[in-house]
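On clarity, I found the account of how folds are encoded harder to follow than it need be. Since the whole study asks how a given chain folds, the encoding of that fold should be made plain. For the editor and my fellow referees, an illustration may be useful. An entry of this sort, consisting of the sequence and the corresponding backbone structure tokens, reads as follows:

:::
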Amino acid sequence: MSPDTDTDHDDTSLASQHRPQTLSQVLYPSAAALVVPLTLLLFLQWPLREWVQAWSRQVNDVAQILFALYVAVAITAASRASAHLAALRPAPVPSRRRTLSRAALMLVCVGPWTLFMLWAAAAPIVQSVAGLERFSETLVPGYFVIKLALALLLALVLLDALAAVLKARRAAS
């Protein structure tokens, strides 16, 4: 080992290596990892039902849970990546003022709706989790996770709208 490599290091690269990861850097790839097991479970339903004649409903229950969690995160991830299907794409480089106004309008539109939905769904979600709600066909506990995925979806949409406003304000300053 040469003496140069031991003493000569870039502080910026060192700081970036040890920077804490954001929620999106952890959550989005984790949700993306659910696609393969979800696909496998959906594929296994038919052979289990037709050939084994067992476990297809339980596999369906697990697939529903994975799908709910995946969708809860994927909607926000698609918004962040501007990957939603849209009739018109935004201008390639909008002005800082336009970016801030779009972010503020998004928060004005999405904020009250997500807060209302969180408020309206809070009691059923709490009741579902407290009772470890079961799937109706199999009576296997786990349906409560689907209701928790609804709360996760709403919270992520609201946090994304807030983050967009904060990012646009910082860029405009």
In short: The two ends are 46 Å apart (CA to CA).
